[in-house]
Amino acid sequence: MSSFFLLSLLFGLAFGQTASLCAPSEYIIHVEKRECTYCLAINTTICAGFCMTRDSNGKKLLLKSALSQNVCTYKEILYQTALIPGCPLHTIPYYSYPVAVSCKCGKCNTDYSDCVHEKVRTNYCTKPQKLCNM
């Protein structure tokens, strides 16, 4: 029984990432500027899903490299720009946003990701909406 457990543990450590369900997911960003008449609803993709992590309760039994706390993060990103309608001439009417092309399970990079789990904010418009399909 113990050899089966050991083989299962090694197999899980070696191939655990293949069981991860981290992929680009559809998401709607609501963008508005105080000076502009409309709120823009933008369809984009973000990285979301499950990544295999390893519980640190077994840290005395496992190597440090086996104790990973991975998140679903961007592997490849494109940036697109949308025009917010109803903006006066003195206002810059453009908004650039990321589009997830591919995702991976890995360490959270604060250069391009928010790695802190914050209180859920409502993503909504206070002005009339315009839908932007990019």
Automatic annotation (TrEMBL):
Q: Which SUPFAM superfamilies match?
A: Cystine-knot cytokines
Superkingdom of this entry's organism? Eukaryota
The record's section on InterPro entries has:
Cystine-knot_cytokine, Glyco_hormone_CN, Gonadotropin_bsu, Gonadotropin_bsu_CS
Asked if the Swiss-Prot or TrEMBL record annotates the protein with the keyword Secreted, the reply is yes
Q: What is the lineage of its organism?
A: Eukaryota, Metazoa, Chordata, Craniata, Vertebrata
One of the protein's GO biological processes: G protein-coupled receptor signaling pathway
Q: Where in the cell is it found?
A: Secreted
- An annotated Gene Ontology molecular function: hormone activity
Q: Where is the Glycoprotein hormone subunit beta domain?
A: 21-125
The protein's matches in PANTHER family, at most eight in alphabetical order, are given as: GLYCOPROTEIN HORMONE BETA CHAIN (PTHR11515), THYROTROPIN SUBUNIT BETA (PTHR11515:SF5)
Q: Which UniProt keywords apply?
A: Disulfide bond, Glycoprotein, Hormone, Secreted, Signal
Family to which this protein belongs = Belongs to the glycoprotein hormones subunit beta family.
Q: Name one GO cellular component term.
A: cytoplasm
As given in the record, the signal peptide range reads 1-16
Q: What is this protein called?
A: Thyrotropin subunit beta
Q: Which Pfam families match?
A: Cys_knot
Q: How does it assemble?
A: Heterodimer of a common alpha chain and a unique beta chain which confers biological specificity to thyrotropin, lutropin, follitropin and gonadotropin.
